[in-house]
Amino acid sequence: MDFSLSEEQQMLVDSTRIFVREKLANRTESFNSYDPALLNEIANLGYCGVTTPVEYNGAGFDSLCLALVVEEIAKVDPAMAARIAETAGPVQHALITFGSEQQKLITENLAAGTKWGTVALWEPEMNQLTEKMCTIAKKSGDSWVLNGTKSHVINAPNADVYLVVAAIDNSDSDDSWIAFLIDKNQSGLHFNQVTATAGTQPLSISHLEFENCKLPKNSVIGTVELGKQIVKSIIADTHMLLAANALGVAEGALELAEEYASVRVQFGKAIVSFEAIRGMLADMAAHIEAVRLLVYRAAEKRGDGKLSAMAKLVACNTASLCVHKSNQIHGGYGYMRDYAIEFLYRDQLFSELFWNNPNQLRSEIADAVTQNS
Amino acid sequence: MELTDKQTQFQQEMREFCEQEIEPNAAQIDRDGEFPADVINKVADRGLLGMVAPKEWGGLGLDTVSYAIAVEEISRACGSTGITVAAHNSLGVMPMVLFANDKQKNEYLALLCSGKDGLCSFGLTEPDAGSDAGATKTTGVRDGDDWIINGGKCFITNAGVCKALVITAKTQKIQGSRGISSFIIDRDTPGFVIGKKENKMGLRGSDTRELSFENVRLPATKMLGNEGEGFKQFMIILDGGRISIGAMALGLAQGAYDSCLKYIRENRKSLINSQAVQFQLADMHVKIQCARHLILHASRLEDANQTFSVESAMAKLYASEIGTEVARTAMQIVGPDAYSSELPLERIYRDVRLCEVGEGTSEIQRLVIARDIIKCDLS
After folding, report:
1. Per the structure, how many domains does chain A have?
2. Which residue on chain A is closest to B364 by alpha carbon?
């Protein structure tokens, strides 16, 4: 087994690190949205098309490269990492894998970062696949009519296209789903931004409402039969990238703790020399190392639902442990909004609370494990 | 051991008062980040700014058990209000009760218990003296009948809304924690500057500020207790303060648990059938009850005039750590809705973080407990 990164992967990590240090670090808490110049720069650097094939304007790198970019950016800005992950990961992957030629052409804009995409799958009463989807797509002649509400869509006000999943009207089973690619200017589509969130403010998390939203036939992604497969692909991709996000948060928290502990002096010495503090740093580092291997493995095996669920479960737990210990090491200063660990502590919640929560992930993993036995 | 009838009745009254007068304001207090003056006025009207002071000095003369109950109930409704009341009582009023002479008590106690001219506060922490509180750099130098104070403090709760504070300063050039003395300082003393309000993760209504002293002249009558007793005094003060921070963490944990249960009942009934969720609720409930018992135990020891230093450290350590755990588990159960300020959970999660740090970090509590176990100085 070779655990080292390829030359290409390492170069991407190194260049991303430089970009993050120069442009994203030293952020202050006071912003709710990104400077268009920064987004432009991100677009130009190709972060939105890491895995997209070269013929569609992407870099054509492997899926681990995307996880590596998300990880590096999440070390200082989990919101930006999530925004990039959403458009570069599940949206483009679904279009490239299942989409029509016309839809694949849209990925050119997404990969170039001139347009942004996001996924609308979950609903107020549907937080896991075993629950009933209430957004209904009804066939009407050659087109479809969409009605319902999608909840907690990230980056919704800033996205140009939405990948929306709906249940097919009058179908025999509860999991007859259909996926659409919908433009933000689509009539009958409204969104309500969720009031203040604990962290990741620039993600502008919102609910989407579809009111007799009339969609032409060509907005269906793939075929009706592929709906379930598309949903599974989206979930696996998102879980894997949220795991990479959580891994980055954990590493960012450890870096801040190391820095602070080596300069903070109490009882006549730097607190990094106290065994209790060293133990915390060691726990963080050990957990991160374990999580990194799992996340990278899930990234390499893109689309593996079980591995992605495992990676998200364990990575979010480690991120939580790391922001907590790092914040604790920072003492009173960690409670102040001018310290980076303060907002990482809040931003960490995003990857943990969104998409499947730990109990749902356990259930998914248990299903996979017991099927194999 | 049960609560007495009087304590039970007090608890019911507090629950009712907090649900009616405090809880409805909690989200806005957090959102605006403004000191909740109206709420504190209502708290003052009920005498709750003098809970720990004897009746003869204008207080309610409550026992520690009742005081802990009050802090728990207030914090269950609103963390910002909880810390304001807890710091005022435990760190502001209590040093006056324990160490002030009758003249000082006459001047300050009844006034502070009424809250009419502002709250009280305790200036101990400095930028370089946090866990190592003995490393105080603020100095007091004798000049005739006066003391000249120079230096600064940070993270001082209630600083911007106080009438007076108790502060510590090094008055003798002795190594280590000896040579520290306490003073009472009025808000408007020349040379005393109260800095800008800190922008905090949580407890955003609570007023936390820096203090600076530039040649502040205090008459010797403002010294609290005797010269050089400061370290001993604040160790005693923090023993009691820990009960209140523990009670605050407990109230926040209870608030998170209650909010999670309410959400399940009203929005996601299917979760009640999830064994995973049932077990999480059971674990949360057990932890909350353990914390409550530890706090009650430490409070009863204090009420019985027995030593309670280790017990209050255990209570504070446990309650604050499970406070964070309970808040986080509650958020996990609720899911993405918990990320929004429409539910109190994310606010509680931010508020309770302070409890593992303020008035002695968890590490300092462990040190206190370990020293007691091993019965020798481990530093």
Report:
1. 3
2. A276
Examine the domain organization and report whether A243 and A209 are in the same domain.
Answer: no
Q: Tell me if residue B354 falls in helix, strand or coil.
A: helix
**B359 touching A (Cβ < 8 Å):** no
Q: Looking at residue A173, what is its pLDDT?
A: 81
Of B132, B274, B350, the CB nearest to A267: B132
Neighbouring C-beta atoms of residue B162, cutoff 10 Å: 28
Q: Which of B277, B339, B354, B355 to mutate to test the interface with A (most CBs of A within 10 A)?
A: B339
> In this structure, what token pair is assigned to residue A310?
């495992």
pLDDT tens track, chain A, 373 positions: 788 999 999 999 999 999 999 988 877 656 778 989 999 999 999 999 999 999 999 999 999 999 999 999 999 999 999 999 999 999 999 999 999 999 999 999 999 999 999 999 999 989 888 889 999 999 999 999 999 999 999 999 999 999 999 999 988 787 899 999 999 999 999 988 887 899 999 999 999 999 999 999 999 999 888 999 999 999 999 999 999 999 999 999 999 999 999 999 999 999 999 999 999 999 999 999 999 999 999 999 999 999 999 999 999 999 999 999 999 999 999 999 989 999 999 999 999 999 999 999 999 999 999 986 5
Q: pTM for this one?
A: 0.96
- B229 sits in the region (left: phi over 0; alpha: psi -120 to 50; else beta) called alpha
Q: Would you give the DSSP letter of residue B343?
A: S
B346 and A131 within 8 Å at the Cβ level: the answer is: no
Number of residues assigned to chain B: 379
* Ramachandran quadrant class, B332 (left: phi over 0; alpha: psi -120 to 50; beta: rest): alpha
Burial of B376 (0-12, 13-18, 19+ CB in 10 A): exposed
B379 touches chain A (CB under 8 A): yes
Q: Is B266 a catalytic residue?
A: no
Instruction: Report residue B126: phi and psi, to 5°.
Output: -125, 165
Boundary (domain end) residue, out of B74, B95, B118: B118
Interface of B with A in 319-348 (CB under 8 A): 324, 328, 331-333, 335-336, 338-342, 346
Structural domain count, chain B: 3
Q: Is residue B71 part of a domain?
A: yes
Mutate to test the interface with B, among A349, A361, A362, A365 (most CBs of B within 10 A): A349
Catalytic residue among B198, B210, B302, B359: B359
Examine the fold and report which residue of B118, B149, B169 is the final residue of a domain before the chain moves on. Answer: B118
Instruction: For residue B379, tell me if it sits in a domain.
Output: no
Q: Any alpha helices (H) in chain A, and if so which ranges?
A: 7-19, 36-44, 63-74, 78-86, 92-98, 101-112, 227-263, 275-300, 305-329, 340-353, 358-372
Domain edge (last residue) among A226, A253, A282:
A226
Count of A-B CB contacts under 8 Å: 112
Tell whether B213 is covered by a domain: yes
Q: How many CA atoms are closer than 13 Å to the CA of B6, on its beta-carbon side?
A: 5
- Expressed as residue numbers, the domain containing A289 is 229-372
Please tell me the distance in Å from A239's CA to the nearest CA on chain B.
15
Token output for B185: 């300082």
Domain ranges, residue B168: 121-226
Question: Which CATH number do you get for residue B139?
Answer: 2.40.110.10
Question: What CA–CA distance (Å, rounded) separates B76 from B15?
Answer: 9
Same domain, B52 and B102: yes
List chain A residues with CB under 8 Å of B379. Answer: 267
Closest CB to A266: pick one of B130, B198, B270: B130
Minimum distance, in Å, between the CA of residue A264 and any CA atom of chain B: 8
